[in-house]
Amino acid sequence: MARNSVIAGRDISEAALIGYGGFKTAQLAQLTLSPLRPNGIGSEPCQDIIVKRFYIPSKKADQLPAVNDPKDDPKRSLAKRFPRLSVPDELEKLYREANILYWAKSLLQLTYDFIDRAISKAATLPPFDIPRLCFIDAGLLLAVKPNENNAKSSGTANVQTPYLAEELIPNSKSFMKYVHNSEPYPLPEPDEPGYDLAQFLCFTQHIQYVKTGGLAYITDYQGSGALLTDPQILTHPSVNAGKDLFGEGNLVIGVKLFAREHICNAFCRWPGFKLDPPASVDIDF
């Protein structure tokens, strides 16, 4: 069913900019869908969300003029710091981001299905707890210009601004990256917060790699509490006949080196999971 939506504060000012990376900005907004969804993002009116957009990286954003002149137009000033792509180009990139989240959720569900089946069949319970994590709820939102001629149009002709709307992570201060997208081992050191969770996430990579026959696994794990966001999926070049299904972070070298660089931990070695060490897959560059 099609839904109408309202994003409060769409010409988002500097005050609503909560962060930016090398390619994307993240801004605080409010969403109201009509009708409301039964659960997840858009299930309540005036719901706090995060909207993300791509920008064209040139200089470092913190070296560009800040939005601090009350006489200046906040939307225009923000655009100076973060010049946007064309609508078709940005929409394609945001679609890829949403697609990554969609498939990351599926791969993580496959992982937990494997874990739960193994534990249910094991003679004894594992000597550790299984963290229960999930990826944030998200979806594409399009600000569409009304067609004055009341004629049907196709493509992105009437789209003014695309957004990736994401569930707000409440404990943003504890946000951290657990596993980098090019290295299948924990980023935190053993004596640092988040190390045990990073170990578990590396174990999930082992499961995904083995269960897909070395074709795909989630990486770039990051988030706060039980919520994860902004993943990457690394795939073997044979997936989709070599045409990249995911984002620019899909590094073939990661798949090639996974079996060599992955270090099995206590999760991997528990006999109840019956996990063999990951075997190398052939990749020609």
TrEMBL record:
**Organism annotation:** Boletus reticuloceps
Instruction: List each copy of the Alpha-type protein kinase domain by range.
Output: 1-278
Please give one Gene Ontology molecular function term for this protein: protein serine/threonine kinase activity
Protein's recorded name: Alpha-type protein kinase domain-containing protein
Q: Entry's SUPFAM superfamilies?
A: Protein kinase-like (PK-like)
InterPro entries attached to this UniProt entry: a-kinase_dom, Kinase-like_dom_sf
Keywords recorded for this protein, A-Z: Kinase, Serine/threonine-protein kinase, Transferase
Work out whether the entry's keyword set contains Isomerase. Answer: no
Q: Is Kinase found in the keyword set?
A: yes
Q: Which domain of life is it from?
A: Eukaryota
